[in-house]
Give the backbone structure.
Amino acid sequence: MSGIKTENTSCGMDMTSGSLWKKIVLFSIPLMMSQVLEVLFNMSDVAVVGKFASYEALGAVGSTTILVTLFTGFLIGMGCGVNVIVARQLGARQHKDLKDTIQTAFILCLIVGIIVSIICISCAHLLLNLLNTKEELIDGAMLYFRIYALGMPAMAVYNFGNAVMSAGGDTKRPLLYLFIAGIVNVCLNLIFVIGFRLAEQGVAMASIISQYISATLIMTNLLRRNDVCKLHLSQVRINKNAAKAILMLGIPAGIQNAIFAIANLFIQTGVNSFDSVMVSGNSAAANFDALIYNVMSAFYTACSSFMGQNMGAGNKKRMLHSYFISIAYSFCAAGILGTVLFVFGRQLLSLFTSEPAVIDAGMARIKIMAFSYAVSAFMDASIAASRGIGKSVGPTIIVISGSCVFRVAWVYTIFAYFHSIPSLYLVYVFSWTITAIAEIAYFAYSFKHLNVRGRY
């Protein structure tokens, strides 16, 4: 048989057997490090312009954070849909369907990335005006956002590849690719900003170059694999059934991620009602939100992946255990990191700015947010669990009601009355609590009536 080339049917970790506590943490740590690296490298954009350009440049880059989160959140949501379908097919050993899913997902994610890029570039000025971006910041913010948007197709491809690989339990290589791209990003940040005095456009150019590097690396891996997760460019085409399955999960998940950003647009509008110092301080402090959220999100990805594989394998008990363990890990991570942020907040903010007033403004936000993150674990883990069993529309509707509608109402009532930073940021813990209760109830009902036998 030495002359016959065989294809390995394994994609990585077997999530259907062994200790869940151990396997979930082993799965999550590389993914967590990837998420942390991604945030740290993005934070380098803010840190470099804040330290080596001006606080106006810091505010300009920071003013785009919500918009970047809005559109990248949709791309991440598409990746989540791919992750769930691939994990389920791996668990059920549906290798023929898996090939169709991977080839279709590549095209769909790339198309979505291109569309998002076009929207961002053409609507940048309109969106920044809707945010009431300060007049002295809007030119720099628009320049940064438009250049950054050129990297959206690459980001979509990376998320596709990461979704496929993580569904099979391979989270180490995406970490390596992101680390390589991130180092390039930091080096280019320093070269463009310090060496060429490019400020906002410099850090944006560094970001898109690093995004294309990470996309190239992950695509190279998928093309060279010798298992069922291999991408065959010669066979790339859209399979109707695979596309429907991906879009039925990916679009609601993308909208769900985008909804949070849309709701936060109104909060950013509230922040922009203060002076430029407060806007800059908020921009610096918001980077730590992303850091903590992304650490927690590694466990949510684990939740969806483990539930997907075990659903394919027909093990309902193991699915439920995956859900509870993911909540426990994400809650503890949020509690620890939130405490560290509260204790060392001033020192951490000093990485982004030397202005005492800007640091004070950032601490006003941190004092509220540091002890709120843990509450979101119950909401997001339940959303991930529902997605893992193929339920994406219901959680999206709940998020729209509990987060978007509630937050908008809060901004125009509670915040409008008190007009203070604490009255603005307390909306998070209240909206997370309300949404978590509804999401847990929805998942409990859906799981109780779930028949895992013979499901796709």
Summary: The two ends are 34 Å apart (CA to CA). The chain is about 80% helix and 0% strand. The first helix runs from residue 20 to 52. Residues 116 and 283 are 23 Å apart (CA to CA).
